[in-house]
Amino acid sequence: MKKYLCLIAVFLFSCTSEIESADSILEKFLNASLNEESSSNSENYESNSSQGNVNNSGSSNRSSSSNKLSSSGGASSSSGAGNSNPSSSGTTIISPSNGGPVSYYGRLKASGNKIVGSKTGSTAVQVRGVSLFWSNTGWGGDKFFTETTVNAMVDDWKAEVIRVPMGHSIPGKSQYSGSYLADKAKNMARVKTAIDAAIAKDVYVIIDWHSHSAHVDPDNAIEFFTAMAQEYGSKDHVIFEIYNEPKCANGADDDWCVAGNWTTWAQIKAYANTIIPVIRSNGGANSLILVGTPYFSAAVGEAATSFLTDNNVGYVFHFYAQSHTINDDAPPWNGYTYSSGVKRVLDAGKPVFITEYGTTNADGGGGSNYNSHDAASSNAWHTFMDNNKISSCAWSINDKREGSSFFGTGSTFNMSNWTNTSSMTASGQYIFNKLRTYANSASWRSGSGGGSSSSGGGGSSTRCKDAQGRDYFCQWGSGCFAIDPAFDEDGAFSKSCTRMVNDCRDWGRLYINSTIEGEDEICDGTAVN
Description:
- The chain is built from 13 helices and 15 strands.
- The chain is globular and about 80 Å long.
- By secondary structure, it is α/β, with parallel strands linked by helices.
- Strand 3 (about 130), helix 4 and strand 4 (about 160-165) form a beta-alpha-beta unit.
């Protein structure tokens, strides 16, 4: 009998990332079994670890309350950013079982023409998210560089990546008031606030040098990326974008460069070869670095003429759906369409990252183009991105009256309710619904695919499932744990889903489709027995 109980104990307490001694396991199991007479529904004793992922400090990395959904389907946030009211879209979102996309996929990196995660092997990772507006003091978008905003974008909008643009201007120029050069301290503070908030939510964050003329002012870029790499280069969450949208070769901010004097790929490449080593040598040795391309980053195909030698680089493409339909001729008008320019890079074995896109006219939907939201073109681009596993960020989190601002409806946005679609532009509503729809198929939320490391991942493809493919969970002792042979110790029951599920029926309580797991948690799925 004691031997049988010991084997049961090994199963029930071995779904951990920290291995306890057999004597400790047996003592816990016997105490629980004999004292509580196997009444698992009322057990409340402690276990030293759980199947929840454990970080380097040994603390549980399970989902916080701000990541869990209310029964109405709206996300709630402990920071006050979320809103528990369901959206008007009525979409039901799958909540992540443990952690966020970074814990699940790991650090992103270039691998051939795909972006992969350090925990996904050769499997392509596609993440989708949003971009903040320029960081410039007094430009209006600066008020959104807050923890509240980031939490809402992750909890309510379901963003997996947040782009944080540091507004840059040329020394001696005044067109970009309140920028990095004009107000360095405040810009740095708000950018770091947004970066820190994204890291805390376990999503990816793009640190963007939001410039149209970076190649003529490398010194300030060196200063900025030295500081950013030293502080954030070791973080798996962080991606560096070193050039937003190159415009004119002489650094002018003309929307149409005089005499076709556009910044060339050769100029961008020379600038990149200056900045990339700065990031690499200051803490970002393994960071994914994204590089803008000519003509407002619309001519990504130009990079295929001479790629950078650094292999952990992604090439940036931007589009605005109403102006840049998928089959329109693209600059420099040498026979490529916008989509075939992207394919030119992919076919050459290099990855593309769409760090900014809009659903409107290329001017951002200002003035007479306010209502230029183009759903059909936007849908075509999303199909293209999905087919090619291209990650993306939508522009932008702002309430400026322009069509591409998510909340630019003509009145100041009320930051207490982020899911009210009536306060969103047509573009905002489109992005909101797109991201929430995509959330239901994200592998890191459902636990299918991706990493299954015991030290992180937020789910495993080896979890035991019922006939309908729904994950089994066991309410046992100190918490709610997914039933997963990959986390079982070697023993009589190792790798046997049937036996593990039956043992849960005997000694615990079996659930399907819980959105909550970990130590001290109660399964919120459907009880099977």
